[in-house]
Design brief:
The protein is of the alpha+beta class. Helices cover 24% and strands 24% of the residues. InterPro entries: DHPH_N, FAD/NAD-bd_sf.
Length: 54
């Protein structure tokens, strides 16, 4: 993720995401995107619960 950026910066950013409860998944597909105010929900295949974008 973010290949053109400094690896240390990417590591810091990914750690910050995890600390905030943001689960970043790469190399996957999205089956659906739904608007459920105040969030946008991404539903990847075979995932126990959908991801939310606030």
């Amino acid at each position: 993720m973010l290949k053109p950026f400094d690896p240390d910066l990417v590591d810091w950013l990914m750690e910050s995401f995890r600390d905030q409860g943001i689960d970043v998944r790469t190399q996957t597909n999205v089956d659906a995107i739904e608007r459920r105010p105040p969030a946008i929900v991404f539903a990847p295949p075979r995932m126990a619960r959908p991801a939310r974008l606030m």
